[in-house]
Amino acid sequence: MLREELSSAQLGTEKRGWLREGFSNLMESRNFLGFLLIIPAEAILFIFLAYPFILGLWLGFTDTLVGRKGEFIGFENYASLLKDSTFWLTTYNTFLYTIVAVLFKAILGFALAIVLNREFKAKGLMRAIILLPWIIPTALSAIAFWWLYDSTFSAISWSLIKMGLMNHRIDFLGDPTNARISLIVANIWRGIPFFTIGLLAGLQTIDPTLYEAAVIDGAGSWKRFRRITLPLILPLMAVITTFSTIWTFGDFQLVWVITKGGPANATHLFGTLSFQRAIPGGHFGEGAAISNFILPILILCVLITFKFLRRED
Amino acid sequence: MAKVRLENISKHFNEVIAVKDFSLEIEDREFVVFVGPSGCGKTTTLRMIAGLEEITLGKIYIGDRLINRIPAKDRDIAMVFQNYALYPHMTVYQNLAFSLEMRKFSKEETKQRVREAADLLEISELLHRKPKQLSGGQRQRVAVGRAIVRKPQVFLFDEPLSNLDAKLRVQMRGELKKLHERLVSTSIYVTHDQVEAMTMGDRIVVMKDGFIQQVGKPLDLYFHPINKFVAGFIGSPTMNFIETQLIGLDNKLFVQADSFRLRILEEKSQNLQSYVNKKVILGIRPQDLSKASAPVEGETIEAFVEIIEPIGNEIYLDVKAGRDSLIASVDPKTKVNPREEILLQANLENIHLFDIENENALL
Amino acid sequence: MYESFWQKFIKFYLPLVIFVIFLLFPFYWMFNTSLKPMKELYNLKLNPFYVHTPTLENVKTLLFDTIFIRWMYNTFFVAILSTAISLGASLLAAYAIQRLKFKTSGPTGLAIFFGYLIPPTILFIPLATIIFNLKLWDSLWSLVLVYPTFLIPFCTWLLMGYFKSIPKEMEECAMIDGASRLRVFWRIVIPLSLPGIFSAGIFAFTLSWNEFLYALVFISTTESKTVPIGLVTELVRGDVYHWGPLMTGALLASVPVALVYSFFVEHYVAGLTGALKE
């Protein structure tokens, strides 16, 4: 299009054509279209995820109460928390809960994945059944556990007594240690499917001829597991475990439904304590400060995931 | 090093019979090639020898040992897989050392064996790399190396060269054969490539649909195939097959094709009496057709050149003689033009005839 | 590689049976308890493992004496809408990141991915203030807007995986044939990714049913509650736990999710594993 060759009248109509063409060119441009398409997702995530995230950090430094705007008070919230024995109990319990539950979920989940890693009829059905605890809303299965853990009517107590293994009913939720164990078991129950399905997929990507080569090289089943399966599944296991860790650490539903943090604050997690202080209690600032203690673990998990994802490249 | 004896080996997968009644004796230090199209049972047979497949029927002996019930890891065999099966998370050194570790070899002995194998295969500089950092050819050598360190009684190869490009394949073929000589081993090699089979094997086992078609030295199979399948499978370009009728004229036997006839030599005519006036399949290799100087009744063929493919050391001519299509492989200096008539001379010594029903060789 | 019967038994059947019993028992328990009349429930002498006199009175109580149905409606409402919004946004985002690979698409993709890692327990307090300021307090719409924050990351991730599996050549061919990028997206990429979209949708649906904290914090009126909140807060009056209706409620509320899941489980598993492989 040589401008010198066009008359000015033609230039007029050409310009409009250029605009339209310019617009459609833009729509073809990867960058423009890309930015455009990503706006809805970005908008939602920004307003309801990124912004609250920052806001939460700030709130922890204020004395906000529900309904009343707060003022900046520096580290006062954190200072008073560090002197709060309930807070320390919560810290201890959150770590205990997370470490024990994730450990068992990983081991049992992996074990089940290995068991399922073979051809058999009804494999699809089995996978569907295995995933049920993960699919069904946690609060609903928590209700079932609640009843199973009832101090008077628990079927577990009933069975143990009937079998002669115990002579009194177990106080599942009234005794701090029992309550912790009960909750951890419920969490493990819920979390195994995630590990199993994920690891099963990973196991199935391992080239079967590697095992054949190992057999011919003289490796027995345990050696094959230790020298081939484990190293090759490690990256996936790390990612899955990291996800599970951060979710378990930030758990809420299970504990709140079954024990609400009791007895005597023994089963509080950061999430439930934060809730208790902020919503019925009304201390938003304090609640936010408590929640923010989840941050370091979150950052750690993000870094680990990042490292393993990079390695995959 | 040892003999390997297979007696009436069969493999059933539910209703599918993959290998049928396979019997073979492999001599100590022999290089035997199982060859055939996909699905013919060659790999399955190899895997039964390896211990990776259960043997449905029959017995396999390595040396004097009946190995049917012996698990793979105790059979004292080594295998090179088609996709190499190198442990991706281990270095080349660790890959080579793995089997020795499993057998509790000392560190020194392991080191020595690995060094030896690496030197032999010229991969000594690669010992600290991981498989994904190696080229296809290098990975293949590591796979072979893994088998060598074991110093087993029998080497098994499952199409080890199929994943290499053509040039590399030709190079590796020679190297593997040299290796075999040096290691003085008994080797069983599976491939679908008949050129590999012909160039590498002391003896070749041609298989089809689970059955052995023919066993023999390469040139035996080339010159004396016992059926049409073997004749067509061995040799490249493929043998020409033409439906003809066996007729008698003046006390001589001829095969009559659509537009030409070829004479059957006296010494070959003896057992053909029952086939006179019946249809038979004529087989003649492209290499046995050359440009004729003058027409000879019963020996030459008038044909029309459709396509000329100069390969370099030969020229392939796609020709048409009446209704029949033929491929001739002629001297590279032959003067020939496309879309022209040509006179071809057939080498009557190397004519093959096959029964039209059971496809067995008649000569 | 052979396996004797006993080896198979120990390595497979036995562990499998133990795991299945462990994983399915609570559901059996829900089912079992729903059918028990109150007197049987609190009768310590009876074997609790099976129902002696099944009854539907719990179902009746649940459906007629509570606003369970209303809660179900609420939950469906939120689930379907938030799934729709998330799917829409994720589709666009996944395509942009995976295919268009615009500048900074790498970091953007990662940022979205990491968004999934942030647990609601860190966000619920600041979100509460935001929701309050937006005047969406106690409204189901607050949930519809907030749920995508955890649905979008996963759906985007999953869909990116699906888009990867569509050969670029197909799109390039269409573009040469004259289609604009948007056209290619609409007419080629989306139809080919339907299984992935399905999986993402199902996953989003089940995830939103599973949400508890936000629903608990943002909604206070009984009529507006979602099922899990309603059951847990309203069926416990004082110190009295109405176990029969509670369990029935838990069971019935699980049904929609289980149904959706069972019809599409293959897609679900494919989606989950596909995303993990990413």
A few lines on this structure:
The complex is a heterotrimer of chains A (313), B (363) and C (278). Chain A has 313 residues and is mainly α.
Can you describe this structure?
Chain A is mainly α and 313 residues long. Chain A has two domains: 3-42, no CATH class; 76-312, MetI-like (MetI-like fold, Orthogonal Bundle). Helix content of chain A is 74%, strand content 0%. With 363 residues, chain B is an alpha+beta fold. Chain B is built from eight helices and 20 strands. Chain B has helices spanning 42-50, 92-102, 107-121, 136-148, 166-183, 194-200, 218-223, 228-233; strands spanning 4-13, 16-26, 31-35, 57-62, 65-66, 77-80, 154-158, 186-191, 203-208, 211-216, 240-249, 252-256, 261-263, 279-284, 289-291, 300-310, 315-321, 324-330, 341-346, 352-355. In chain B, strands 6-7-8-3-9-10 form a six-stranded mixed sheet, with helices on both faces. A five-stranded antiparallel sheet of chain B has the order 13-12-11-14-20. In chain B, helix 2 (92-102) packs across helix 3 (107-121), helix 2 packs parallel to helix 4 (136-148) and helix 3 crosses helix 4 (136-148). The two termini of chain B are 38 Å apart. The mean pLDDT of chain B is 91. By secondary structure, chain C is mainly alpha-helical. Chain C has one domain (78-277): MetI-like (MetI-like fold). Chain C has helices at 5-34, 38-41, 57-65, 68-100, 105-115, 120-133, 140-146, 148-164, 168-176, 181-192, 194-210, 213-218, 227-234, 243-277, and strands at 236-237, 240-241. A two-stranded antiparallel ribbon of chain C has the order 1-2. In chain C, helix 1 packs across helix 14, helix 3 (57-65) packs across helix 14 and helix 11 packs antiparallel against helix 14. The radius of gyration of chain C is 23 Å and the shape is globular. The mean pLDDT of chain C is 83. Classes of the chains: A mainly alpha (313), B alpha+beta (363), C mainly alpha (278). Chain B binds chain C through residues 52, 54, 71-72, and chain C through 1-2.
